[in-house]
Design goal:
With about 260 residues, the protein is an alpha+beta fold. It has a domain at about 5-155 and about 230-255: CNF1/YfiH-like putative cysteine hydrolases. It has helices spanning about 40-55, 80, 85-90, 135-140, 140-155, 180-185, 190-195, 205-215, 240-245, and strands at about 5, 15-20, 65, 75, 100, 105-110, 115-120, 130-135, 160-165, 175, 195, 200-205, 225, 250-255. The longest helix is centred in the N-terminal third of the chain and has 15 residues, at about 40-55. The protein is globular, with a radius of gyration of 17 Å.
Length: about 260
């Protein structure tokens, strides 16, 4: 039984999105939910986290998963952060929607259940990023802000960056109100590329984020789009629109492995 979808990155970079099966949780959280912030039984979550970290071959204190708020705040996981207590780390990661690190054997991750997880790898500097981009984060160009932060902190150049847009809701399934369409239009998104009208407007968050990455200077061939719709494939991946808000979450993470 597979617990992971692995993403295409070079040898030494482990990037993945968790699937639903193979864990300890029950009900709408069944069964491999590793998110402690969505109402699941905490003992089951801790068992799932231990299983995830065992599969990654890292101790559980080397997995970093923020409590997200659909904002654009970014946090850098560095040596100073590692030296703080676990309780302080949790406090610092509250309200964070993107993580960046250059540390080896540290898995930075985000959780989603229809929102878009984006993983970045700078081939030149080895900087990594994990980004939570729901429609609000996409609208606020969180991926652009992360690339700007990587450039200011590590001199990252977009041409050196590889990106993965992970399992999330598709254009066909993501129906929105006129106000959401208008927000994207007014923010300058190419609506002919990212939207279509059915009974209501539908937004393509995959293409919206791919367009942002291309505008930043990433090469088209450096961007992987998983093409997996969580709403349609909810038996394999968690989907809040299918299962309700009180359900499990996908964890998408990335780490640089040095033995």
């Amino acid at each position: 039984m597979s617990r992971y979808l692995y993403h295409r990155f070079p040898i030494g970079i482990k990037a993945f999105s968790t699937e639903r099966a193979g864990g300890y949780s029950n009900g709408a959280y069944a069964s491999f939910n590793c998110n402690p912030y969505c109402g699941d039984d905490i003992e089951s979550v801790e068992q799932n986290i231990q299983l995830l970290c065992s599969d990654l071959d890292i101790p559980s204190h080397r997995l970093f998963l923020p409590k997200q708020v659909h904002g654009t705040d970014i946090f850098v996981v560095d040596e100073q952060f590692l030296s703080t207590s676990v309780s302080k780390q949790k406090e610092l990661l509250h309200g964070i929607d993107a993580l960046i690190t250059t540390l080896p054997n540290c898995c930075i991750a985000v959780s989603t259940a229809d929102c878009v997880p984006i993983l970045l790898y700078d081939k030149r500097t080895s900087a990594l990023a994990a980004i939570h981009a729901g429609w609000r984060g996409t609208l606020s160009s969180i991926v652009v802000k992360v690339l700007q932060k990587m450039k200011s902190d590590y001199s990252t150049q977009a041409k050196d960056v590889m990106a993965c847009i992970g399992p999330s809701i598709s254009l066909d399934a993501f129906e929105v109100g006129d106000e959401v369409y208008d927000s994207f239009y007014n923010s300058g998104f190419p609506m002919d590329r990212i939207a279509c009208r059915k009974k209501k407007w539908h937004i393509d968050l995959w293409e919206a984020n791919r367009w942002l990455l291309l505008e930043c200077g990433l090469h088209d061939f450096s961007i992987e789009v998983s093409g997996i719709c969580t709403y349609k494939d909810y038996e394999r991946f968690f989907s809040a629109r299918r299962l309700g808000i009180h359900s499990g979450r996908i964890v998408s993470g990335i780490m640089r492995v040095i033995k």
